[in-house]
Amino acid sequence: MQQSYGRVTDQIIKELVEIVGKSNIVTDRDNMESYSHDESPHAGKHFPEVVVKPEDTISVAKILALASKNKVPVTPRGAGTGLSGGCIPVYGGILLSLERMNRIIEIDRENFTATVEPGVTLSEICSKVEEQGLYYPLYPGEMTATIGGNVATNAGGMNAVKYGVTRHNILGLEAVLPNGEVIKTGGGYVKSSTGYDLTQLIAGSEGTLAVITKIILKLTTKPVKREVLFAPFNSLQDAIDTVPEILRLKMTPTGIEFMERRIIEIVEKYLDREIPYPQYDAFLMIIMDGDSEDEIHEYFVNVEEICKQHGATEALVPGSERAKRRLLDAREKFYHAIKRYAPMELVDVVVPRSKIPGFVRRVKEISAEHGIPIVAYGHAGDGNVHLHPVCDNISKEEFDKRLPLVLGDIYRAGVSFGGAISGEHGIGIDKKPYLAIQIDAPLLAVMKKIKQSFDPDNILNPGKIFDL
Amino acid sequence: MQQSYGRVTDQIIKELVEIVGKSNIVTDRDNMESYSHDESPHAGKHFPEVVVKPEDTISVAKILALASKNKVPVTPRGAGTGLSGGCIPVYGGILLSLERMNRIIEIDRENFTATVEPGVTLSEICSKVEEQGLYYPLYPGEMTATIGGNVATNAGGMNAVKYGVTRHNILGLEAVLPNGEVIKTGGGYVKSSTGYDLTQLIAGSEGTLAVITKIILKLTTKPVKREVLFAPFNSLQDAIDTVPEILRLKMTPTGIEFMERRIIEIVEKYLDREIPYPQYDAFLMIIMDGDSEDEIHEYFVNVEEICKQHGATEALVPGSERAKRRLLDAREKFYHAIKRYAPMELVDVVVPRSKIPGFVRRVKEISAEHGIPIVAYGHAGDGNVHLHPVCDNISKEEFDKRLPLVLGDIYRAGVSFGGAISGEHGIGIDKKPYLAIQIDAPLLAVMKKIKQSFDPDNILNPGKIFDL
Predict the structure, then answer these.
(1) Statement: residue A319 has pLDDT above 90
(2) What is the pLDDT of residue B275?
(3) Distance of CA A458 to the CA centre of its chain
């Protein structure tokens, strides 16, 4: 569909000023730079025509009604920490920043729920609910991200083995449709069989169906202790083979991470950290929450036993809080370390978790075929593999030329192993060219019809996930 | 929308015979009775024009393409154990029975998943996955139900506190669209951010969007022990007040059930069971899974302490397997007991769990206002309240006259407490007149547009959830 949009005229600016006030609008290009990109290494920059910062749902509704009337594209944005270009205003128009809708409306200590606005950061949610003796258990890795962005991309992270992903921890939404109508979905309860579950449809739709203006989060209680076990293996296959056995133990770990030697070396170099066991090729990090050190210790005795049956001659459980923090911190900084190491791309394919070794072996072949090194690590407990093709042996120009071929091969491999193109970052604009590898024509046609039923003029975050 | 459907002609029958074979078609009315109703007390009977029993996806696809071409309504059906009339062919047409699609295709011991056809019973799934050392943790209460029906209604049940509801335990689907196209959604992984989540949209859509032909279930490990604690309280408020405190303990119970005196009396009478503590008005039953009796015992010591702080002078943990089984069994038979007691209706409203006492108090007022006794029990841990208006004091005719007014008042009360009309049974045809109490015009309009985008001719399970 060739899209022809209305431009942001002086009259529209005037009406936007009436809605949000002059101080909450940015029209000069110099102050728009930070709204023109996200953290994706290859999505580039696109400037909006205007940045608008509403402070409540009614303002969002008015902005969308105005945009709808004038067929002006609207791109919703949280903190801009996304990794696939999902909040970049590729068609210009209105950049709808939710940064001022950053209130925690209610923390319900009886029902273990929090009602929040989309612009609250994950960091603030976690600290405020913990003050109330409750816990929001997800850790997608970037605490400055907003919860609205987390819901829009269905963010995942390290704790998914135990707690699932964002969609499993939201109970209801308030959202504004492209025409300016406000809908409320779900509520403060887990069970519901009352019509279609629009909470789950809007979650993960990357801002293409509606603008989320309130979120009801499901909370839990905070575990007393968190401990980590770090085990080295001779091969990734050996490491991954332990995972189903670990998951058959009676306690469910919070997360199981895997990493290969190469990422460890990069982290050691760029974060000035020394990580144990230099002679091994692959590693598991098992993160366990529990009530007491004793309980976790007993669990780790069993985990270590399983690891040793699969070739780990030793395993490390840091004795001090500081050593533990350093180990977890090193894992959390993988992405930052690799960003400093070299120009790179990032992949977040998910496969059934037993397929990780086969998939990573195929990725190594792809790496050799294209002459592009690919670093692998990720979430062994849920099959979510992070791959970084890195530019450390050829020119950036050559890298950028080969990259689409490498990515195409990686995504085809992921899908051939029964996986999905994006486990947690979303499609955005970066993965749009590859979507058809996984989503066949009938399924894509259904998604497009759903998009059209919400947004007949395609004004809401156009150009993301797929083109109409 | 005034609906005009094509009839099932001889030519259509001939083509259906070609698809599934003569022995898998029922055309004589005498053999159709069991396909004309479900377990709903008030949904009544509607006969289809033909019953068709395909054995594979390709046959389902051909049947739907044929129906689509001829604008004949198609009603998918599992075991017919539904409680809201969702599988009754109200417009006649083709009754698509999935009873022969009853294979367990794969149990994946590495990835803890099972791929099953929709016609497998819950009972068979549970026993087969347990043979493989795995566990499907939901217990919606009716083990002869098919998994396809469970997914279509997003069935809930007693174990939802720990394990969520059906939608939280499915990872992917194969489904046939009304036009006969086959789509595959999700896969053998928990994380995905690859386009709209159609698995979660089709789950709970009561067979109105697509016919489910395969389901990937998420499995877990089976707990070693299950124990029950039964505690009596002076009031429902006292009982419910303990729930958040119980949930703040470090272990998560499998389920927390509440019941009032009246249902206990009915169960005692109709199941010939004696249930302890005749002098109390309300009861909690806490169901706990764990690794060992010791672990659960320690947990129950804490639970009992909390109960006693809220007026329970004592608490019972059955000492023998037999006594425990009898207690759980009594709870499971509430619905059967009340069905034998008197003509009745059933309600499955869900409210935020702290609102249960206020909601039930309001229900008592409604009961008094209409002169219709209402029995209450349900899932205290997740806010899902079962109410039975019973006909034990007036004529059936008078009961049936007052019932819609009673139900309207109950649903309005549930929604006013922040709840939903159906927590686990679905809307079907029974609750359709009340849907607008919860789902306002903009939200309903979105649902209708989604329905139309899947099913432009409205041939798939028409007349369910809402009318177009």
Answers:
(1) no
(2) 80
(3) 24
| pLDDT averages per 10-residue partition of chain B, 468 residues | 84 98 97 97 96 98 98 98 97 98 97 97 98 95 96 95 96 98 97 97 98 98 93 94 90 93 90 82 94 90 96 90 89 90 96 95 97 95 96 97 98 98 98 98 97 97 97
Interface contacts (A, B; CB < 8 Å):
264
B108–A352 CB contact, under 8 Å: yes
Inspect the interface and report whether the beta carbons of A189 and B351 lie closer than 8 Å: yes
Tell me the C-alpha distance between A397 and A400, whole Å. Answer: 5
Q: With 80 as the cut, is the pLDDT of residue A3 above it?
A: no
pLDDT at B458: 98
Number of Cβ atoms within 10 Å of the Cβ of A373: 18
The answer to whether the CB atoms of A446 and B183 lie below 8 A apart is yes
What's the number of CA atoms in the CB half-sphere (13 Å) around residue A385?
34
Is residue B132 less than 8 Å (CB to CB) from chain A?
A: no
- Contact B275/B330 with Cβ under 8 angstroms? yes
User: Is some CB atom of chain B closer than 8 A to the CB atom of A325?
Assistant: no
Buried-exposed string B344-358: b where 16+ CB fall within 10 A, e elsewhere: bbbbbbbbbbbbbbb
Q: Are A448 and A468 in contact (CB under 8 A)?
A: yes
Chain B contact for A468, CB < 8 A? no
A 10 A CB-CB count for A45 gives 13
Least CB–CB distance from A191: residue in B205, B249, B382: B382
The confidence score (pLDDT) of residue B2 equals: 52
Its ipTM equals 0.96
What residues in B contact A140, CB-CB < 8 Å? none
How far does A427 lie from chain B, in Å, by closest CA? 6
Q: Is B189's CB within 8 Å of A383's CB?
A: yes
pTM of the predicted protein model? 0.97
Question: Cα-Cα-Cα-Cα dihedral of A210, A216, A220, A221, to 10°?
Answer: 130
Q: Of A162, A194, A247, which to mutate for an interface test with B (greatest number of B Cβ within 10 Å)?
A: A194
- Under 8 Å between Cβ of B442 and A177: yes
